[in-house]
């Protein structure tokens, strides 16, 4: 078809490359399948991790689909869509990023033979959309609500969701320990939508189990001046003053230009400067605060002044930490020391400076207004702690989602098998080609349990057959059976508490279908010669790198 379209009129610049139709579609599908193959092995509790390093020597070890996709410098225009859906799944629900890429890849793979046989993509797209709609409705039907339970019950249910998320990560061995920590942190911030109210502080060294949750705020000790050692390091129920001003002598000196005619006046100017700062410090002391924090510097003079009066101070506190102290202790950040009334001071049960590993930490615990929590993470290598942080982020998102939407479905491939069965059954009622397409869609969903088996080294065909049989039971009692990751057989995922919030699944299925349909609807890519040469080079180097296994297709920064 393309050959017949030789234009008589020159429409595009010479050298412009356009490929069209079926060939284009098939090549796009191949690219997406290749991308899905990259993340394939990371799925599930027995999934492997990827080590990604760039030219600068930055090394990242990750199991998280979105992180891997972000770090791979994918330049294929169609395959980029998969990167985007992984990212959007990450920001929308926080988990299920590998799932979404795998599903999209599999939908396309199933569509490929049809495309090659000359089926018009629009027919496929229509059937896929119908199937997606049916699948989402089925998820809604199967979802189990955790609403109306007591706090304790809810906590243990949420911890199970968090444990399912964590089981596929590096810290999976300690999933119960971290799951309950995550649940406590999320419950502490209550309905607050700001995710940064849960701080995660990383302190390399020590054991994972040394990680702990502070019901309040913790941050690394800031830079301090002489006199700091004499300050008390622990208070019970202190008043806390939060400032956004500099308590240093030099500030006035640098802000003004003064012309003097008589040298003796100089002393009075110097005195005035000292008076100003002493006045400020005096006002801080008079406010009754025992802990003074400032976003800006607190100099040596001030440090000593506070030390003499048994007050603790810390300057250059990070904005984020200061905001969290404000939220937790009920204080407000002041931009002036005049008129400090009691209401603007915060308080907490215990303030303490503590040694954590090699670092000193300022810890505010037992905060009256709650609303913040800090997880202090310990562990070996930097890469390890960073991956641990990403994993906790996933778990935090999942618990928040589950708390908000409060419905869960059975994981371990159970929900996917059940939808697959339902779609196959439904397809039988449809006449025409659409039946085949919906069947393919149903088959594609099986990729999740199949991959879970493959990654764990089980016989996928065997397990899948058992699962199909179980799900086909007319009584519907097998609906929550999924892969049993411990024995290599099948088990009731729901009874084993392998749970996932239903939004993770519905969002993943929705996004994957949309991406697949989008790619199926493209039949032509036009590259202009300029960008083509740039991309061509990148392509060549990436291919060469891949061939020799040097990973040069990675992002360069
Ligand atoms: P994603 O990035 O998509 O969340 P994961 O690597 O976290 O990928 O794997 C999630 C999959 O692993 C889900 O389908 C989930 O149901 C499954 N899973 C998690 N824990 C278990 C378990 N203990 N047994 C069986 N399947 C599990
Ligand atoms: Mg996950």
UniProtKB/TrEMBL annotation:
Membrane-spanning ranges: none
Subunit structure, as described in the record: Heterooligomeric complex that forms two stacked rings.
Positions with biased composition (Low complexity): 532-545
Cellular component aspect of the GO annotation: chaperonin-containing T-complex
Stated family: Belongs to the TCP-1 chaperonin family.
Stretch list, region Disordered: 529-557
Identification of the protein by name: T-complex protein 1 subunit eta
Assigned keywords, A-Z: ATP-binding, Chaperone, Cytoplasm, Nucleotide-binding
InterPro entries: Chap_CCT_eta (IPR012720), Chaperone_TCP-1 (IPR017998), Chaperonin_TCP-1_CS (IPR002194), Cpn60/GroEL/TCP-1 (IPR002423), GroEL-like_apical_dom_sf (IPR027409), GROEL-like_equatorial_sf (IPR027413), TCP-1-like_intermed_sf (IPR027410), TCP-1_chaperonin (IPR053374)
Domain of life: Eukaryota
GO molecular function: ATP binding; ATP hydrolysis activity; ATP-dependent protein folding chaperone; unfolded protein binding
Pfam family, one: Cpn60_TCP1
Subcellular location: Cytoplasm
Chief location: cytoplasm
Bias (Basic residues): 547-557
Function: Molecular chaperone; assists the folding of proteins upon ATP hydrolysis. Known to play a role, in vitro, in the folding of actin and tubulin.
Matching Gene3D superfamilies: GroEL, GroEL-like equatorial domain, TCP-1-like chaperonin intermediate domain
SUPFAM superfamilies, per database record: GroEL apical domain-like, GroEL equatorial domain-like, GroEL-intermediate domain like
